C-alpha cells in the first residue's frame, strides 16, 4: 500500500483555501497511486487551544458546507485523513475525518485533548484500505500507550498520527525530538507502522512549528522524515499485505 504524509503550512479560518490545497494534493496523490494520505491535526480550520475560537470553527459531520468541501477535495480514489474541530450537539471534539470518493466514511476523536473545551473521544475505530487496516491517534494520544494498543488489538497494521506542534518557541524546541521518539516507541510497542503529518511555519502570535512529519517502521526505524521548516510530502510503499505483528507490553510510556 502506498501511503503519504503531507507537511503543510498552517492556515487559520481559511477553510476554502485549505480545501483548495487539499484538492490539489489529493489529485496529485491519486495520480501517484497513493492509497492513503494523512494531513495534520486540525488542519481544515486551524488549530487553537482557546475554547471559544475552537468552538467558533467547529463543524458537524452532517454540516452541508463540510460535506460539500469533502466532495470537492476528496473526489478521487485516495483515502484522506484530515484533522478538524468537530461539533457533536453541544460537545466539541478535536477529530480527524476519513474521507474517500467524495464523502466522509468515518471519524476519530482525540482521546486526550489538550485543547480547552474539547471532550475526550472514547472510540477507537479501525478502517480497511486494500489488504491493510489502519487507525488514528491524534498528537498527544501517543503519550498513552493504551490508545495505540487498542488499535493494534483490533487488527490495525498502520497508525496515523495527525499532529500540530505549533507551540511557543521554547516548547517547540522542547517537544521536537521527543515527538519523533514517541512515534518510534509507538511503533515498537504495537508492532505497527506509524506515520505522522505536522504543520510547519508560524502565526501572528509568534508560535511556530519545525514540522515533525515522519514514517516509522514496526522496529522503530524512521524510514522517511520531512525537511524541517519546509512544506514536504513523504511517500512510502508498505508491503502489499499487512504482516503479522505482536505487542511489546514492556515498552516505556512517554512522560505527560
UniProtKB/TrEMBL annotation:
Gene Ontology MF term list: hydrolase activity, acting on carbon-nitrogen (but not peptide) bonds, in linear amides
CN hydrolase domain ranges (all copies): 1-240
Keywords of this entry: Hydrolase
The keyword Nuclease is annotated on this UniProt entry: no
One Pfam family recorded for the sequence: CN_hydrolase
InterPro entries: Aliph_Amidase/BUP (IPR050345), C-N_Hydrolase (IPR003010), C-N_Hydrolase_sf (IPR036526)
UniProt protein name: Carbon-nitrogen hydrolase family protein
Naturally occurring in which organism (per UniProt): Rhizobium jaguaris
Amino acid at each position: 500500500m502506498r501511503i503519504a504524509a503531507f507537511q503543510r503550512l498552517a492556515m487559520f479560518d481559511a477553510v476554502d483555501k485549505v480545501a483548495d490545497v487539499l484538492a490539489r494534493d489529493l489529485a496529485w496523490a491519486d495520480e501517484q497511486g497513493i492509497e492513503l494520505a494523512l494531513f495534520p491535526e486540525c488542519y481544515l480550520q486551524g488549530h487553537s487551544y482557546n475554547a471559544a475560537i475552537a468552538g467558533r470553527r467547529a463543524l458537524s459531520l452532517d454540516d452541508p458546507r463540510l460535506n460539500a468541501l469533502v466532495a470537492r477535495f476528496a473526489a478521487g480514489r485516495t483515502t484522506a485523513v484530515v484533522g478538524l474541530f468537530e461539533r457533536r450537539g453541544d460537545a466539541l471534539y478535536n477529530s480527524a475525518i476519513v474521507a474517500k470518493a467524495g464523502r466522509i466514511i468515518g471519524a476519530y476523536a482525540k482521546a486526550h485533548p489538550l485543547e480547552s473545551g474539547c471532550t475526550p473521544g472514547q472510540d477507537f475505530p479501525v478502517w480497511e484500505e486494500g489488504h491493510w487496516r489502519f487507525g488514528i491517534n491524534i498528537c498527544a494520544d501517543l503519550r498513552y500507550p493504551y490508545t495505540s494498543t487498542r488499535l493494534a488489538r483490533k487488527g490495525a497494521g498502520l497508525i496515523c498520527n495527525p499532529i500540530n506542534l505549533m507551540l511557543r518557541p521554547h516548547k517547540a524546541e522542547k517537544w521536537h525530538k521527543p515527538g519523533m521518539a514517541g512515534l518510534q516507541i509507538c511503533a515498537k510497542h504495537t508492532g505497527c507502522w506509524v506515520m505522522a503529518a505536522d504543520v510547519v511555519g508560524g502565526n501572528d502570535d509568534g508560535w511556530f512549528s519545525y514540522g515533525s512529519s515522519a514514517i516509522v517502521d514496526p522496529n522503530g526505524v524512521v524510514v522517511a522524515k520531512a525537511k524541517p521548516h519546509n512544506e514536504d510530502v513523504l511517500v512510502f510503499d508498505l508491503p502489499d499485505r499487512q504482516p503479522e505483528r505482536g505487542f511489546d507490553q514492556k515498552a516505556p510510556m512517554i512522560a505527560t
